[in-house]
Design goal:
28% helix, 4 helices, 0% strand, globular, mainly alpha, 87 residues
């Protein structure tokens, strides 16, 4: 499966404990990564500064569902977030 355009669910929903250039302490779940652009792309996608956890994520139907809304719901459930409808 290829990443869905205009999605960004994997850059919003999961928490990231790894150091990020714009977030040295990582990011909490449900908060957009500071490297997520307005068109839901990663501005450090091809950078060596991109955390291994991000580079290792692969779009798969089991976590991405059929659309962005499903991806957010699935990832929020996996993350244990209860306020996913507000993302």
């Amino acid at each position: 499966m290829e990443c869905r355009e205009n999605c960004g669910a994997c850059c919003i929903v999961p928490s990231i404990s790894s150091k990020l250039p714009k977030a040295p302490g990582g990011k909490v779940g449900g908060v957009p990564c500071p490297h997520l652009t307005s068109d839901y792309r990663c501005d450090i996608f091809n950078s060596p500064e991109r955390p291994a956890v991000c580079a290792g994520f692969r779009a798969e139907k089991i976590v991405c569902g059929n659309n962005r809304s499903e991806a957010i719901e699935i990832l929020a459930d996996l993350e244990g977030l209860t306020t996913w409808k507000h993302l």
